[in-house]
Design a protein that fits this description.
This protein has five helices and eleven strands. By secondary structure, it is an alpha+beta fold. It has a four-stranded antiparallel beta sheet. A four-stranded antiparallel beta sheet has the order 5-4-8-9.
Length: about 230
């Protein structure tokens, strides 16, 4: 083997090794920064809504942790770390500094319901199979606006079709926890199970509210009373 061949072979093996080391170092540095110097730190307690249930099991806490992670990811944080300590979640977030926004997204159960004018339940968010956040143009004028598109499963489609059929000419209220998101008038039976959420007002405010609501909905509902014990910027 010539000297030039040996050099080429050496470089062939060394370049992938160096790339691997660089990636490993980068991930290690990000992890170290997250652990040592997170932008936000929160401690959250979760208590079962069912008063007969004393506490969540280890498996249930893992599920709640996964929901919280989905919510944080939907906010666009660069990285986060969540650990379980009995009935508490210790959360460190890197790459996001809006503490009030994080508290509003992580501090709510996220229960979505559709009710009629008498307050009777039509369908819940348990039947939402897909949630999409996007920007679309209105039919009138082509103005761009942020929207959340909800798509229901087959059972949800059936329940919603029945609910809209019974309430033509009346309003159906879309609620997120104790907040009314929309209360549109039903003009026809809706059979495809698709609901579009829009938020009027100032363009920037509508974008802000839509992003926050999408983050809360995408994570899924948590069947718990959520208490933020500590929340701080570091």
């Amino acid at each position: 083997m010539s000297q030039s061949d040996r050099k080429r072979r050496f470089l062939f093996f060394m370049i992938p090794t160096l790339c691997f080391l660089m990636i490993s170092c980068s991930c290690s540095e990000l992890t170290d920064k997250l652990i040592k110097n997170p932008d936000l730190h929160l401690e959250i307690n979760v208590t079962p809504i069912d008063e007969e249930k004393a506490a969540f099991s280890a498996e249930e806490m893992i599920s709640i942790k996964a929901i919280m992670k989905k919510r944080i990811d939907s906010l666009g944080a660069s990285s986060n770390s969540i650990s379980i300590q009995e009935q508490n979640l210790l959360i460190d977030i890197l790459g996001y500094t809006d503490l009030e926004e994080v508290k509003s997204v992580l501090g709510k159960p996220g229960k979505l319901t559709f009710t009629d004018e008498q307050g009777s339940l039509i369908v819940t968010g348990d039947h939402i199979k897909k949630i999409t956040y996007t920007i679309q143009a209105r039919m009138e004028g082509g103005v761009q606006e942020p929207i959340i598109k909800l798509e229901m499963d087959e059972e949800g489609k059936r329940l919603f079709a029945d609910g809209t059929r019974r309430n033509i000419g009346k309003t159906i209220t879309i609620n997120l926890d104790d907040e009314v998101l929309m209360a549109p008038v039903v003009h026809d039976t809706i059979t495809n199970g698709v609901v579009i959420l829009t938020f009027g007002g100032d363009k920037n405010e509508a974008l802000h509210v839509t992003q926050k609501t999408a983050a809360l909905l995408k994570g899924g509902a948590i069947p718990a009373v959520i208490t933020i014990i500590k929340a701080e910027v570091r």
